[in-house]
Design brief:
It is a single chain. By secondary structure, this protein is α/β, with parallel strands linked by helices. The protein has helices at residues 42-49, 72-77, 95-101, 111-116, 119-138, 154-166, 184-199, 211-217, 235-239, 242-249; strands spanning 2-13, 16-27, 31-35, 57-62, 65-66, 80-82, 172-176, 203-207, 220-225, 228-233. The chain contains ten helices and ten strands. The longest helix is centred in the middle third of the chain and has 20 residues, at 119-138.
């Protein structure tokens, strides 16, 4: 079953057509990779899905609900959670606190309860900390849980951002270049994390330049060039597509 439907999505900035009538579906519980050369419009597409930019035309539907016109926070409340190209950690907070911040929108206790620090609130906080620590351990960050998050290398901050997004309990997780800045070990940890996320029933969509990672983890690959969708299919289908090869090598297709 399709959880996300994008139809004829179009957006221009001045005279530049950034996204040109893009249409695709994302299947529930799948892992979809969005690839393309630099400037292809991949991040713009994420921004349109989450309504950071309003489209000029087209539709975006998540679980039967139109996302057009909704605020980014309202879209997040529906379960569509995203990360950004540049890691964004909260200064003045530890690694663990940054991870736990992702759960903020789901807290069940009100302000008075939190201020009073009632037993149920304390129990919920402990459960959240335990879950955050388990996820940090999965990507090798548990030993640094009490360190300031801003002291982490950029690659580790990217992994932390994925953990924080996961603790928001997404239904659809949009990750913008999660492997950027990661070394080989961190990339392997990210691959394991993405497989675990998918195995838990979360639908995942990633913008990614690491083709080795994409071809290893993706169920579906969508390819953009100059804002247009030029191919989609399994990793094997996309790898052998002449239009995709030409787009990456800068060759003309006969």
């Amino acid at each position: 079953m399709s959880v996300l439907q994008v139809r004829d999505l179009r957006r221009s900035f001045g005279g530049l057509l950034a996204t040109a009538d893009v249409s695709f579906d994302v299947a529930e519980h799948s892992l979809t990779a969005l690839i393309g050369p630099n400037g292809a419009g991949k991040t713009t597409l994420f921004n349109l899905i989450t309504n950071l930019f309003a489209p000029d035309a087209g539709s975006v539907t998540f679980e039967g609900t139109s996302l057009i016109g909704l605020s980014p926070s309202a879209i997040a409340r529906l379960g569509v959670i995203r990360t950004f190209q540049t890691a964004r950690v909260f200064p003045g907070m530890t690694v663990l606190e940054n991870a736990m911040a992702g759960h903020h929108r789901l807290l069940r206790h009100g302000l008075v309860s939190q201020l009073a620090w009632w037993p149920r609130q304390r129990a919920e906080e402990r459960r959240l900390a335990d879950r955050a620590m388990a996820l940090l351990d999965l990507v090798g960050l548990a030993d640094q849980a009490d360190q300031p998050a801003t002291q982490l290398p950029m690659g580790a901050q990217k992994l932390l951002e994925v953990i924080r997004a996961l603790l928001a309990q997404p239904k659809l997780l949009l990750l913008d270049e999660p492997a950027a800045g990661l070394n080989d070990t961190e990339t392997a940890e990210l691959a394991a994390l993405l497989r675990a996320i998918q195995a838990c029933g979360v639908t995942v969509m990633v913008v990614e330049h690491n083709m080795s990672l994409v071809m290893t983890i993706a169920d579906q690959v969508i390819v953009l060039e100059a804002g247009r969708l030029i191919a989609s299919g399994s990793p094997a289908q996309v790898q052998s597509n002449p239009r995709v090869i030409a787009a990456y090598l800068g060759e003309e297709v006969a």
